[in-house]
Each structure stands twice: as C-alpha cells, then as structure tokens.
Amino acid sequence: MRLLKRGMFLLLLKLTIALGSLWILSLLTRSNPGWNPSSVLWNSWLEYTDSDDSPEKVCNCSAILQGEREALEQAKLLTITKDFHKSVHVPDEHYVNATEDCSAFKLRRKYLTSPLSQEEEDFPLAYSMVVHHKVQSFERLLRAIYAPQNIYCVHVDKKAKSSVLFAIWAITDCFPNIFLVSQPVDVVYAAWSRVQADLNCLADLYNSSTQWKYVINLCGQDFPLKTNLEIVRTLRSLRGGNSLQSEEIPAGNLLRVKNAFEVIDGTNQDTGKGNEPPPINITIMSGSAYFVVSRGFIRSVLEDRRVPALREWLKHTYIPDELFWATIQRMPGVHGSTRPHRIYDMSDVNAIARLVKWQVFEGSQDSPDARYPECHGSHVRGVCIYGAGDLQWMLKQHHLFANKFDIDTDPVPVYCLEKYLRKRALSGI
Fold first, then answer.
1. Which candidate in 21, 103, 149, 426 could, as Cys together with 43 as Cys, close a disulfide (CB 3.0–4.6 Å)?
2. What is the extent of the structural domain holding 368?
3. What pLDDT sits at residue 27?
C-alpha cells in the first residue's frame, strides 16, 4: 500500500512539473509569436548531458577543449585506469539486445529523427562505411553523423566475427536509410579488396532512390569534426568539385606500382616481378583512401570506360586505395576532376576529407619541417591515435573528419566531440 501511494505521489509530481512547464511555454509563446516551443523542448531533450550517465562524464570537456592543463591531465590519467576502461566498454551483444525495440533504442541514444534545418533536408549526403570490428566505435560514429535525410551503406568485412556482424545488422535494421552492402568482400590490408569494399557500397548508394549530392567514405576509427550543417555548407561551396588528396607519387613509394603484387596467404606480397605500364596513358597519382566527391564523380567511376582498365592494373599494386581515387580525380572528363599537372596537386592537409597525423611529420612548434604538432595520444603503424590534448588543435582545422580514434585506448576525445558537435548542431551552427 505504501509503495502504491509513493507511485501515485511521483506520478502527480511529474504531472505538476509538466503542466508548469507548459504554462511557462505558453507565456513565452504569447510574448514571441515566431518562437516554436516544441522545437526548443525537442532540441533540449536531444542534447547530450551528464544525466545520460556516460562513464566519461567525469571529464570536463569544456576545459579540455580550452586546453586547460588540469583537465587534460585528468583525462590522461583515465587512459591508464582499468576500472574506467571497464566501465566504458560495451560488448557487441549489448546492441543486439538493445535494438529489439528500435524506438526505445533510438530514443535512449538520442538519434535525430527529423532534419534540423531545411538547408540540410535539401542537401542529402551519402556515406560509405567500411568496418570490421569495434561495434561500439561504429555505433558512436553512426550516431554522430546520422540524419534522416541522408543515406548510409555499411560494409562489414566478410571475415569479421559473427558477433560484430549480428550487432551491426541489428543497429542498421532500425533505420530505413541505413543498409548493409549487397556484396560484402573479404578485405585484405593494402590490397585491392579495400577499394572493392567501397566500390560495392558506392554502387548500392548510386542505385538507391535517394538523390544525394555528395558521398563521404569512412572507416570505424573516423569521427566528424563538423556538424551535418557545417558539412553541407562546406560541400555547397565546392560547386560540384571534389576534395581529396591527389599528387605526384613520392619517390619512396614508386615500388608500390613498379613491382607486381599478389595476395598470397592473406597478405598482399611483392612477387619480385615488374608490373606492366599503366593502361591507356593514365597518369598514376598518389593520395589517400579517403575522399569527399560528388554524385557525378561516382557516376564516372561506375560508367567511364577507362576505369575498368585502371582497376585491373591496380589489382597488382601495393595499397591501391591510395592510388585509385587520386588517379581518377586527375583524369580528363571525370566530373569535378582537375588536370594532372603538378600545379593542381592537392595534399592531405589541403583536402577536407580527413585529418591524419602521421608520426613522421609531427614536431614541436619551433620545428620548420613539422606539418603537425606532436601527438597527445599513442601511435599505431605510424599514425596518431588521438588523445584529449589533440582536440583543441583539431577543431581549428578545416577537415570534415579525423582519423584515428580508438575508444578502447582513449574514449575521452570521442566523448567530448560528441557533446561539442551535438550542442552546435542543436543551436544551428
């Protein structure tokens, strides 16, 4: 009986608070007829707050983004705390259970269910996402870039663990504008299959009913630096052009194309034989696996008669994903392409596709040869895994996305970016 009375009391208390809030909203609406109270309530509810009970809330993200030393030191300490990492980790099976009720999952995770502006609704984007593990990282990336007017293709590596595949399928199945690629492949590092994974998603996206304007490709360790509105405005300013690294092949990488490579025992290996010359007089350029390109560019990739010959030739090179997109960008007649002359070369620093800190190019502020400041996290295969100390610098750059983040190593940068971007998105910045 006591429990029943307590439940009735709590219900009446909630109703009183709700009615009081509505009364305040009605007064505000009368004083400002152009103001939309439902929009304010909805946006307020969608903001990420400490009440969401994220383990990372012990960090002071505002102070971290300002570069305050004490906050950065606290964040650094958390990266070596086992209990903290244990509290942050979410197993793959969680997502299968959590998405049994899709509506509850989307509400709890605060996914956007309507466009935040007419400008964004009128400029839908497409995403190709290639992943093979770390479901938690994938879901947090997806939530950060999700908008209902956009469309998303997800490629899960054929050799990924079944728990990964089931969890990602469960997540994507909750959204009408997210789908798994129709033809998944077994991705081999530094081999053609990495390009093929994106190509298969791009074909599915191009043939979808959504008339998206631009496509961006991502991997599971990327994260945005801009809101969807900021991305839309940046892409509009390209006026149909593309933004991706495309420049002369560095002398140290020439063996990647001069020698013939084949996939042997699951790795892309040098056969010791010379490769054939490039087909149909194409100038091979060097670049990145990452791109920001128009719908017209993808039409050229899928329909231009020169591309199949280039594809076949690149299957015998090393890391062809750093050659394929960069080369097509300099082919005459491709939508948004630029001439192959060196004056049109674009570095990864100037392209907006991805911000990557290569360890070999890091250095102090006083170093004239350093492209980037020193990494505040760790390094894997010569690439910086960002730490909290990198955030202030990152957010000053013009790139749309950054790579690499690793929640297992340091979840704080992703957490602070999540809060920062959602607050800006809801304020219309």
1. 426
2. 40-89+355-429
3. 42
- Percent of the chain whose pLDDT exceeds 70: 90
Mark which of 297, 313, 344 sits at the end of a domain: 344
pTM reported for the whole predicted model: 0.90
Q: What is the per-residue pLDDT for 208? A: 98
The reported pLDDT for the residue numbered 20 is 42
Cα gap 390→406, rounded to integer Å: 13
Q: Which of 303, 322, 362, 418 is catalytic?
A: 322
Strands (E), 256-310: 259-264, 267-274, 286-287, 292-294
Task: Say whether 322 is catalytic.
Answer: yes
Q: Domain for residue 148, yes or no?
A: no
Nearest alpha carbon to residue 224 among 411, 355, 48: 355
Q: Which residues of 407-420 are buried (b: 16+ CB within 10 A; e: fewer)?
A: bebbbbbbbbbbbb
User: Could you tell me how many helices (H) and strands (E) the chain has, helices first?
Assistant: 18, 14
The Cα 152–Cα 129 span in angstroms is 7
Per the structure, how many domains does the chain have? 2
**Which region, left, alpha or beta, applies to residue 392 given φ > 0 means left and ψ of -120 to 50 means alpha?**
alpha
Q: Which two tokens stand for residue 312?
A: 């076949």
